Amino acid sequence: MEKKGLYLVLATALISGVSIFINKFGVKGMDPALFTTSKNILVAVFLISTVLAMKEWKTLKELSTKAWGQLALIGLIGGSIPFLLFFTGLKMTTAAQAGFLHKTMFIWVGILAAVLLKEKISRNMVIGGVLLLLGNLLVLKITGFEFGFGDFLIILATLLWAGEVTLSRYVLTTLDELPGRVVAFGRMGFGSIYLLLYLAVTGKLQLYAGLSGASWLWILVTGAFLYGYVFTFYEGLKRVPASIATAILLLGTVITTLLNLAWNGTIAWQQIAGSALLLGGVIMFTGIRTWLPAPQKVAQ
Prior knowledge:
Blueprint: H1 3-23, H2 32-53, H3 57-61, H4 65-78, H5 81-90, H6 95-102, H7 105-116, H8 123-139, H9 149-174, H10 180-201, H11 213-237, H12 242-248, H13 251-264, H14 269-286, H15 295-299
Helix pairs in contact: 1-11, 1-13, 2-10, 2-11, 4-9, 4-10, 5-9, 6-9, 7-9, 7-12, 8-14, 10-11, 13-14
C-alpha cells in the first residue's frame, strides 16, 4: 500500500464529507435521474479534459477491446444502474436507513476483494468493521429498522457499487500503465451514456428545457465536487486495496458531522459518540496508525 494512495483516498473522504454537507443547501425538486445524469456528463467532460491536458490520449488509443469492455461494464454497474436503483429506493424508505445500508459497502467490497482479488481479511479488520457499523448506527440515529422493498433496492445498488469498485481495482492492478483517471472516465463517461438512454426512453430529456439558472449552477457546483471525488478515489484505488479504500471513505461521515456542528452549534451526543467509533473503526480496519510518525521522530 502506497502512502500516496492513502493520502488520495483520505482526500476523497474529505471531499465526500464536505459535499454531503453542501448538498443540504442544493436545489430541491429536481428529478434525481436528470440531476445525476447532468453531473455525470459534466464530470466525464472534466475527466477527458484532464486526460488530454496530461497528454494521455495515446493511452486511450492503445486500450484493447477487452479493456474498453471492462470500462463499459464499470460504467454500467457503477455509473448508471445503481444510481437509478438508489434514488428509486430512497423514495420508499427513510434517508437514515438508506444511508446506513449504503455505508455497508465496505463489507461487500471486503468480501468480493478477498474472493476475487485475494485481499486478506485480518482480525483487526473484523473488529474495525464492527466499530464502523456501530458508529453509523449512532451517527444516523437509527433505533429501529423496518426492511421494505425500497431497502432491497438500496442494497442492490450498494452491491453493484461494491462490484464496480472491485472490478476497477482489478483493472487498475492488471493494467499497470493505466491511470486511475482513465478508469474514472470510463465509469462516468459510459455511465452518462446509459443514463442519457434511460432519460430518452422514459421521456425525461424534455425536462432539461425547464431547468433554471440556479439548477444549472447547482449542477456545476456539485459536479465539481464529484470530479474531485472520483479523480482522487480512482487514483488512490490504484495504490490502495479496495477494502481499505472503501473503509477510509467512511471518514466522510465524521467530516459532515463536524461541519454540522460548526454550522448549527449543537449536535446530538449519539453523533459525537458515533463519529468517535467511526474514527476508531477506520484506524483499526485500515491499520492507518502504522503510517503515523513515531513519537521519537516527532520529537526530533
